[in-house]
Amino acid sequence: xKLLRRLAALCAFTFAFTATAAPPITIHLAGDSTMAEKLPxxxxxxxxxxxLAAQFRAGTVVVxxxxxxxxxxxxxxxxxxxxxxxxxxxxxxxxxxxxGHNDQSVEKPDRYTPPADYVRNLERFxxxxxxxxxxxxxxxxxxxxxxxxGGRLVPSHGEYPDLxxxxxxxxxxxxIDMERRSSAVVQEAGVExxxxxxxxxPAGANSNxxxxxxxxxxxxxxxxxxxxxxxxxxxxGSRSALAERLLEATPSK
Length: 253
Known about the structure:
253 residues; alpha/beta; Rossmann fold; 5-stranded parallel beta sheet; 37% helix; globular; disordered N terminus
């Protein structure tokens, strides 16, 4: 009987090991500076994509972060970045697509993308990913830190987030609504408390920013980590198989 119990235990262990030894899923990131990995001269500015892998159990995902500062859907295509991402995408991969900050910057013609073109570019992204037998996930852009005189967060992306939501619904594509989630986080932190989430630095505190910084778009390490946790929290409530690879508990704060 002891031998049988030992054999049963060995079989159970072998089954559990095999079940958890599935190959990692590759998650490709297409986006802008709010998601991107930063150059040393930009630190402590941090993209939330840099904290994405930490939301999953070790060895279950590989994050391929191709997001880049200053890019819109248009320039991401024009510079060949989208094609490079596609070339690296294989069946079963996940592609997170988060643009909007630069697309809606009408005062910056080098990156501005009119709404109709923005939608067409996103539609192309979705179709291209499906053609690779991979899974696209659309994300609305994260909030900027802009408050009115009453301490209420002011939306700053115009119609662009709604265009993403509409496309996700129309094309039956998974959506992670980072604008709404990040807006709630920034609003809860308040006018003063939210500075810690963004690149606010006093003069002389960092050699990369000798004059200090008051940046209401780009995240601090704390802010980037919080946004990655918000993504994970939203993913946990989805039907995605990727959610099964998240850490057992993903705190919302």
